[in-house]
Specification:
By secondary structure, the protein is of the alpha/beta class. A seven-stranded mixed β-sheet has the order 1-11-10-7-6-2-3, with helices on both faces.
């Protein structure tokens, strides 16, 4: 790097979605917050902001009903409750996901059964799901990781043949499409997150969408302690929690929804630019996207071949840090089944419930059963991404990657 290039690069700081530099938050959110606060009604059972969010989001994705809730974890929990598994029944899911998508399965007494992933995307596939299915399978949870849709056509065909409902975890995939339709509307239920770092945010919050009126009712009941608001003779119909979204969260979300499409297009445009800048680098693969899918880039990921770049993704990530670019080699340090709660069955006291009800095959976490998972985690490097990135930011990232790539390749040749 020349001195002039170094001086220019030192002036570039990437926006972060952990503060205002990488978020589209402003007067619109403040105006709606003021309206809610001045009304004096902050609970969604009496207010209007949350119900407006539900109508607006259902219309946006083309779904009959949306239910707002307190977090993305609550959204997944509500979806599992809506499916209503019996204790010991199984839900097939991904080992590369947040624990917020696993814990609700255990809370409902069901067994998470982990399918392997395609190492090119770290998404589960029909081919990896099918060997996990059994007579106990109650549902499949498909996570659209990083904003890149799973290959839903074959998954849905498999699920239909086996009469198994599909829950879509779209926490990282707002307005992504598969087969021309928005993710979240393809399966029985779709779940979204409004946590700080997602495409849009209210700090925390969640959304559940479905076309099935019975699933919608159970979802809405669950986030309201199963109290039948509006029923002729309401009661607490089943065991449930308070997972409501507040009117304050609703106000912020409502303003954020108006900015969602623009923010996603910005992410896509800058991702296309970075992909073009990196296309010729041996040992680095840019995101693989199915022919019928549209990626929305919650994060931008690289797959690094350690055989062509010594040290692989950790070495490249360490080099990028010298340019002020944070990254996450491996994304998560270990798959979900190696986390203590699952590995050691730490659930309710010393009971190990519901693992005590599991088939031995369902909780066999031998590494050789998950080659795609370990291959994908070994090679992936996750770069931060948000709607505030400009061409200068992307060119800075590209320059840093190319610079570090050249250094690592030189080490390979010299070695």
């Amino acid at each position: 790097m020349t001195q002039a290039a170094a001086e220019e690069e030192s002036e570039i700081t990437l926006p972060s979605d952990q503060d205002g530099s990488g978020r589209m938050l402003g007067d619109e959110e403040l105006a709606l917050l003021r309206k809610v606060i001045e009304s004096g009604t902050l609970t969604s059972t009496k207010g209007t902001a949350v119900s407006a969010v539900e109508r607006r989001f259902a219309e946006m994705v083309g779904c009959d009903q949306a239910v707002a809730c307190s977090s993305g974890t609550t959204a997944i929990h509500a979806a599992v409750v809506a499916i209503d598994p019996e204790p010991g029944e199984e839900i097939v899911t991904s080992p590369i996901t947040d624990m917020g998508a696993i814990a609700p399965i255990l809370y409902q007494g069901a067994i998470p059964v982990f399918a392997d992933v395609d190492p090119r995307t770290c998404n589960i596939t029909a081919e990896t799901i099918e060997p996990c299915l059994s007579e106990r399978t109650r549902a499949i949870i498909v996570t659209h990781l990083f904003g890149n849709p799973a290959e839903m056509g074959p998954i849905l065909d498999l699920a239909r043949r086996r009469s198994i409902p599909v829950i879509e975890d779209c926490a990282q995939a707002y307005l992504a499409r598969s087969g021309g339709r928005y993710v979240g509307t393809l399966g029985a239920i779709g779940c979204f997150s409004l946590q700080q770092g997602k495409h849009i945010t209210a700090g925390e919050g969640g959304l559940v969408v479905t076309d099935d009126p019975e699933l919608a009712r159970r979802t809405r009941l669950f986030v309201n302690k199963a109290w039948g608001y509006g029923d002729a003779n309401p009661d607490h119909y089943f065991l449930a929690l308070n997972g409501r979204m507040t009117e304050l969260q609703g106000a912020v979300t409502l303003a954020q929804l108006d900015k969602l499409a623009d923010g996603i297009e910005r992410r896509r445009a800058m991702a296309r630019r970075l992909t073009g800048r990196l296309a010729d680098l041996p040992g680095i693969e840019t995101p693989w996207i199915a022919a019928d899918a549209e990626h929305v880039y919650w994060r931008y990921c690289l797959w690094v071949d350690q055989g062509q770049l010594p040290g692989g993704s950790p070495a490249l990530g360490a080099g990028l840090k010298q340019h002020g670019i944070a990254s996450a080699p491996r994304y998560i340090q270990k798959p979900a089944f190696q986390c203590a709660v699952v590995r050691d069955q730490r659930t309710f006291g010393n009971s190990r419930f519901p693992f005590t009800l599991a088939r031995p095959e369902a909780i066999d976490y031998a590494p050789e059963r998950f080659p795609g998972t370990f291959d994908g985690l070994e090679r992936i490097l996750v770069l931060p991404w948000n709607e505030r990135y400009t061409e200068d930011h992307v060119d800075h990232i590209a320059f840093a990657i190319r610079s570090q790539h050249a250094g690592l390749r030189k080490d390979l040749v010299d070695g």
